[in-house]
Design goal:
Length: 229
């Protein structure tokens, strides 16, 4: 079954180019030019992936608002920002709002397609891996691999797909230092180092919001991260 991709881009020419490329690679594409139309449609039926520009028609940060609204509906919907805005502030803001990836519009179409394919492979690989146990339990932490659900001290924590698999990579082998490359490999993702750092900070913050004494994710200088039992 082909995957549905929501493409939210206000520049018609760019939207047509991206949509044509996605369709040629077997995806069904739902096209939107503004936040309101996109939200009204996607709030009733979610796609398999959303690709969102930040500036949408008369809303300079419309894409950010749309991402936040979609995250209220689903924590596990894969979301990619695709924007001409390339400042560190915008990239960090996008990831903090729950995007799984942030790409700039100078990315080539083959690289864009590769990033999309990597997200779908990651989801499929974990869903179809019958050798994995359904749960990972480590002290106060419980991960439900089938439902992408996480709880800490019996309290549910909402993580995105990317955040979930990064946490899984660390918690499955507590005490083992995971380099950024190993985290990407385990989570079947391809991003830069700063993106990994931002995701880890976001995961920490979500745990700290329910447990002010949480300190189980340790940064190991020049090496990576590890989960402390």
């Amino acid at each position: 079954m082909s995957k549905n991709i929501a493409l939210v881009e206000d520049e018609a020419l760019l939207r047509d180019n991206y949509a044509d490329s996605l369709k040629r690679n077997g995806y069904d594409v739902w096209e939107f030019s503004n936040r309101t139309d996109a939200y009204n449609s996607l709030s009733t039926r979610l796609p398999d992936l959303a690709i969102i520009d930040i500036s949408l028609e008369d809303e300079i940060d419309g894409g950010f608002s749309l991402c936040q609204d979609l995250r209220k509906i689903s924590q596990t919907l894969p979301i990619i920002f695709l924007s001409a805005r390339d400042s560190d502030y915008d990239i960090v803001s996008g990831l903090r709002m729950g995007a799984d990836d942030y790409l700039t519009k100078d990315i080539s179409l083959p690289n864009l397609l590769a990033r999309i394919s990597a997200i779908f492979r990651r989801i499929s690989a974990h869903q179809n891996n019958d050798n994995e146990n359904d749960f990972v339990k480590n002290g106060n932490l419980v991960l439900d691999l089938k439902r992408y659900a996480v709880s800490w001290k019996n309290t549910s924590i909402d993580l995105t797909i990317t955040e979930f698999w990064l946490l899984y990579s660390m918690a499955k082998y507590p005490g083992h230092v995971k380099s950024r490359d190993q985290l990407m490999e385990d989570a079947k993702m391809v991003v830069d180092d700063s993106t990994i750092t931002t995701h880890i900070k976001r995961i920490r913050r979500k745990f700290e919001n329910i447990d002010s004494e949480f300190d189980n994710i340790e940064t190991v200088y020049a090496a990576g991260y590890r989960w402390k039992s």
